[in-house]
Design brief:
Elements (H helix, E strand, L loop, with lengths): L27 H44 L3 H11 L2 H9 L13 H15 L4 H27 L8 H6 L1
C-alpha cells in the first residue's frame, strides 16, 4: 500500500514563486518607461471613472422608480415603466432579481404577463449572455407557473355568440 504525502501548509508544491515575478530591467530607462505607461493607464481610467459613475447613478435612479412601484404593489405600473424606459440594462437588472428567480411569479395576472413577455424576449435577443439568461429564466418561470392555465384557456371550446368572460381572460 502506498501513501501520497501532500505539501506542508503555506508552502507551494514544487513551485518557485520567483518564476511569477517580473524581472527587474537592467536599463533604468526601461523601468522609467514602465512607470510612465502605468501613469498613463491610471489617468485614462480616472478620466473614464466619472462617465462610469454617471451611468451607474442613472441606472440606480431608474431602478429606484421601478422599486417604488413594486413596493406599493403596483406591478403593472412597474412593468409599464420598464417598457417606457427602453433600457435593457435596467430591464435585465429588474427581471434578473425578481421573476428570473421565481419571485412572486404566481401573483402575476395575464395582462401583466402579456406586458412582461416582450421585455424578456428583448433580453433573449441580446448579445450579452447575462441578458439572455435573465430573459430565458423569466420566461421559463412564467411558463412553469402559468403555462398550463394559458393552454387550457386557448383550448376551451367556443360556443355560439361572444363569450365575454373568455374575451376578458384572453
Amino acid at each position: 500500500m502506498s501513501y501520497v504525502v501532500g505539501p506542508k501548509k503555506n508552502e507551494p508544491a514544487g513551485i518557485d514563486m520567483n518564476d511569477f515575478m517580473k524581472p527587474e530591467p537592467a536599463d533604468p530607462l526601461l523601468l522609467e518607461s514602465d512607470k510612465q505607461k502605468d501613469i498613463e493607464i491610471i489617468n485614462e481610467i480616472m478620466e473614464q471613472h466619472t462617465t462610469l459613475v454617471g451611468v451607474i447613478q442613472r441606472r440606480r435612479s431608474s431602478i429606484q422608480v421601478i422599486l417604488n412601484y413594486c413596493n406599493k404593489g403596483q406591478i403593472a405600473n412597474a412593468i409599464n415603466g420598464l417598457t417606457m424606459m427602453n433600457d435593457t440594462t435596467v430591464v435585465m437588472d429588474t427581471l434578473n432579481n425578481t421573476f428570473a428567480k421565481d419571485f412572486h411569479v404566481s401573483g402575476l395576472n395575464y395582462e401583466i404577463i402579456a406586458n412582461l413577455i416582450p421585455l424578456a424576449s428583448t433580453l433573449v435577443h441580446s448579445k450579452y449572455e447575462a441578458h439572455i439568461l435573465a430573459g430565458l429564466k423569466t420566461i421559463f418561470n412564467i411558463l412553469k407557473t402559468h403555462g398550463q392555465p394559458m393552454r387550457a384557456m386557448k383550448t376551451v371550446a367556443v360556443g355560439r355568440g361572444v363569450d365575454l368572460a373568455r374575451e376578458e381572460r384572453l
